Amino acid sequence: MSLLTVRNLVIDYPQTRALDGADLELRQGETLGLVGESGSGKSTLGSAVGRLLPGAAVRAGGEVTVAGEPVFDLPPGKLRHLRKKHLGFVFQDPIASLDPTMRVGAQLRLVLGRGADVGFHLGRVKLDDARVVRAYPHQLSGGMAQRVAIAMAMATAPELLVADEPTAALDSQVREEVLNVVFSLAADAGTSILWLSHDLPAVARRCDRVAVMYGGRVVESGPARQVLGDPAHPYTAALARSAPAAAARGARLEPVPGRPPVLTGASPGCAFAPRCPFAVERCEHERPAPVRIREQDVLCHRAGELAEHMTAGRRPEVSA
Prior knowledge:
Layout: E1 2-13, E2 16-27, E3 31-35, H1 42-49, E4 58-66, E5 69-70, H2 76-86, E6 87-90, H3 104-112, H4 118-124, H5 131-134, H6 142-154, E7 160-164, H7 172-189, E8 192-196, H8 200-206, E9 209-214, E10 217-223, H9 224-229, H10 234-241, H11 281-285, E11 290-293, E12 296-299, H12 303-312
Parallel strand pairs: 3-8, 3-9, 6-7, 7-8
Antiparallel strand pairs: 1-2, 1-4, 4-5, 9-10, 10-12, 11-12
């Protein structure tokens, strides 16, 4: 059963198109990693799930449904109920996501209600020190503040947790500890996770499925180990080769050539075509439709041909 469905979602900012017909599906109890370069549309899509986009954003088309509810069509009262009952959010900057004028305990009580056992919820995220309850956010380390944010997000056992680069500002050891907390709490509560991340190896280890974004669209999706270990889209393959965390010690990284697009409207063809070594003439003016390759859904005109060549160990011709 689908908990989250995104269909042909188009989001515009002044002079910029952030989402250009994005499609995504997340099932109950599933963990999904959303990956891609900065500017691919990940954060916009994550914010759209809860209708948390900034005021300048305009939905130019498409829809988002959470637990069967049309997010963009709900009146304010029903939207608040949807966020409270079904959704939890953990953002990149833990300090900025907390109220600087309130003690941690008071903020948790706002979420849980008067008389709630604040210590229990902090203990679940490995914050057993009673001083944390009385602390203000600025008195906490980044890792501690992020644990508080996770405790608040998971306190009501949401059906879906949207985690937008929740460990980006943390060092590697704290990062693993925080991710362990997120995924263990979610598993205990049966919470689905939409995890926005640049860490491809971590996504492969922790997520059931992965969706790869480029130019405001999901260009490949499927089982995480299949997509990242045997990609069917040229962009996914290039992204995997450029990931520092996945490279062997001493190995030379292969950066994705060129720069991500800055769209001002609908892309006339494949947005990756200017950077793709396999692009042909139709890629420039014809938008690719999804095709099924192995267990993946792929937006690429040559996906079937490229998959055959890669299976045979041969490099496809650049022009055809």
